[in-house]
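Inputs:
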Amino acid sequence: MSDSKKKVTKPGWKGLPAGDLIIGGGTAREFKTGDWRSKRPVLIPEKCISCLTCWMYCPDSAVIVKDGKVVGFDYDHCKGCGICEHECPVKGKAIKMISEKEAKANQKNK
Amino acid sequence: MAKSNIVARTGNEAMAEAMRQINPDVVAAYPITPATEIVQIFAGYVADGLVKTEFVPVESEHSAMSACIGASAAGGRAMTGTSSQGLALMAEMLHIASGLRLPIVMADVNRALSSPINIHCDHSDTMMIKDAGWIQIFSENAQEGYDNMIQAIRIAEKAKLPTMVMTDGFIISHGMERIEILNDEDVQKFIGEYKPEHYLLNTEKPITIGALDLPDYYFEHRRQTIEAIRNSKSIIEDVSKEFGQKFGRTYGLFENYKLDDAEVAIVALGSTAGTTKTVVDALRAKGLKVGLLKPRVFRPFPKAEIADALKSLKAIAVMDRSDSMNGNEGPVCLEVKAALFDKGLNKTLVNYIYGLGGREIRTQDIEGIYKELIDASKGKAIEKIQYLGVRE
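Outputs:
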């Protein structure tokens, strides 16, 4: 996930193209939409059966699948809606929603 | 001077003629009295193959301006014409056109806003959208309307701002006058080819236009539009000067008529300025030092220049053909007052609200104003806001 707290110097009015214009194509790729999430899904790999139910249900295509297996989530675009956890058919759930605060604390402890 | 043709035209016919000579890529319009003829005549030109324009007969003025925005963003020259309620219905899209910096040119035939419903001239339609980021150019007669339309193309495209040219409903739009039409090729040469730097149909250089701005960008984009309006003043002056050099009719940001040695003066927009000139001539013949200042460009407002032109006067009347509904002065008077304040000038200044809903303004009304001004300049008390010709 991109660090939303990172200081970015934004252009002033003299440096912007005139007229609410974005020059260049495919710029949506640069737009990270997951920075306002309050909860995030965490994968428990030992429980996951890679049935891909979460991958089908995710409204943001944020479930990352490699070689037919769920490997994690695209936190740049995941909004933390929790549908993946809700739909996970595994008993005891292979996906757990945790708060962003908790996720950050976990990262620090690592 | 280039060859010209003298013809008899109504204001609307003159505006349509200018549009034919401009030959824009797209015209999207909806009919409304008293502007209907402009696009009606132009639609005839399209049907007769006299122009290459794509004519879009839309279902409302909101759609007319939307189609113009689309056409202009795509990279074309887009024009339209409307009035009163039509302009009001466009209001949402007018701000979008200026925010996207699209050089759309529109003929606005001034008509009163409802309610009460009325089809006759006043300036309440234009004044309602004076803060929409459009350049606004008023015309005294059909000739000026025609000349302003042609200049507006150049002004809009250089300033990257939409521009509207006003004529007074019925008084100019339906009154026939002697005007000089330029040659088609001279108009084409003057306006040149439109080459926008960025446009949607340019697949070589893709762009996104009209993206969402959150609080971290909106202010910067608005600041750009503010600067564009500020910079458009010198662009208007340059284009008007070039027009004058080429075709012999010179325009500025405003016109001073016998103002230099005047002791009292009237400030008036549009056709009333023409009526006022007749009165100025008559009173001058009697030895009275009266003058006129006719603002041509209302947006941007040439504040410092107008204050400078009014600095030596003893008393000034500002004519407003609409009211600001602020319980105080009309829109033109507010601008003039602010201009005088900045120069530290505390003048005897009277605001006349007049001509609402097409109420006639006659030469004797204007003569009466000059007489009141002369009395006021000699110290007689005067009511500062007056409603000229209204029945009490």
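Remarks. The CA atoms of residues 151 and 239 of chain B lie 7 Å apart. Chain B has two domains: 4-247, 254-387.
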